[in-house]
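Help needed: design a sequence for this.
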């Protein structure tokens, strides 16, 4: 190889290294698409957007008000108050509950905050302190003749996909009971579940206590809750694993919200005061 060719190759190598270095600096420092994971692990500052991922069909924790068209609920009100006190721009982002992990990992949302069960998921997310004690219960039609979980043998049961209810029925401790069902079908949301029961195509739905209370209140005497819960669990705010900086900011603000009484006022507004953890 002659000297001119060697010199040209050397110059090309230096240029390639220089471009690579510039590209690396750009990705790490300008908040580009490849920087989302790193950015999601950082604390927020005043003026930042705080994007809350939630299931828009999960009252009373998060749902669309039929009158105003606004997204409301206990969890969303709490999240909005946290954002307000930190000077963040609050954004409620409805998501497909099945896709919540993808949304969080990609940086599309900052937190999962919507009746999110921490039990059994302790190592999958960074968590706030639990703030609601929740039970997983069965709801059936009032005139079904079903009085206990044992009466669900041979019945068609519904549960929301990728929900805490699904986790409960998939728990090995409940395998014997679940094995007696004629079928266990996953549905996208609880509104679908209740409409399916109304049509007679299903006999029961596995649902969170708070959701059960709301649905029973909205639907009058058409449904009833079975007395014994399937499982007891707790709700917390879920952050991307390792995102302790944002978790600590949110937790400190939640502590202030509890201390000044705002937390309990919101709980009473949505009639879940008996379930919250003070």
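Sure. Designed sequence:
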């Amino acid at each position: 190889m002659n000297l001119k060719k060697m010199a040209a190759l050397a110059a090309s190598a230096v240029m390639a290294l220089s471009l690579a270095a510039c590209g690396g600096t750009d990705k790490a420092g300008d908040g580009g698409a490849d920087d989302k994971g790193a950015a999601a692990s950082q604390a927020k500052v005043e003026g930042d957007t705080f994007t809350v991922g939630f299931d828009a069909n999960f009252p009373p924790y998060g749902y669309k008000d039929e009158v105003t068209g606004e997204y409301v609920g206990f969890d969303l009100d709490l999240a909005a108050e946290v954002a307000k006190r930190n000077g963040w721009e609050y954004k409620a982002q409805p998501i497909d509950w099945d896709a919540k992990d993808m949304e969080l990992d990609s940086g599309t949302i900052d937190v999962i905050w919507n009746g999110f069960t921490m039990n059994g998921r302790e190592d999958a997310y960074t968590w706030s302190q639990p703030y609601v004690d929740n039970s997983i219960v069965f709801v059936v039609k009032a005139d079904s003749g079903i009085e206990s979980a044992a009466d669900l043998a041979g019945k068609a049961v519904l549960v929301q996909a990728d929900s805490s209810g699904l986790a409960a029925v998939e728990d090995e401790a409940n395998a014997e009971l679940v094995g007696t069902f004629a079928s266990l079908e996953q549905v996208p949301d609880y509104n679908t579940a209740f409409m399916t029961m109304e049509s007679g195509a299903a006999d029961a739905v596995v649902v969170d206590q708070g959701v059960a209370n709301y649905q029973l209140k909205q639907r009058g005497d058409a449904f009833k809750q079975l007395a014994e819960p399937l499982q007891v669990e707790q709700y917390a705010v879920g952050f991307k694993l390792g995102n302790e900086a944002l978790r600590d900011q949110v937790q400190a603000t939640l502590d202030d919200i509890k201390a000044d009484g705002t937390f309990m006022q919101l709980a009473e507004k949505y009639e879940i005061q008996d379930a919250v953890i003070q």
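The chain has a mean pLDDT of 87.
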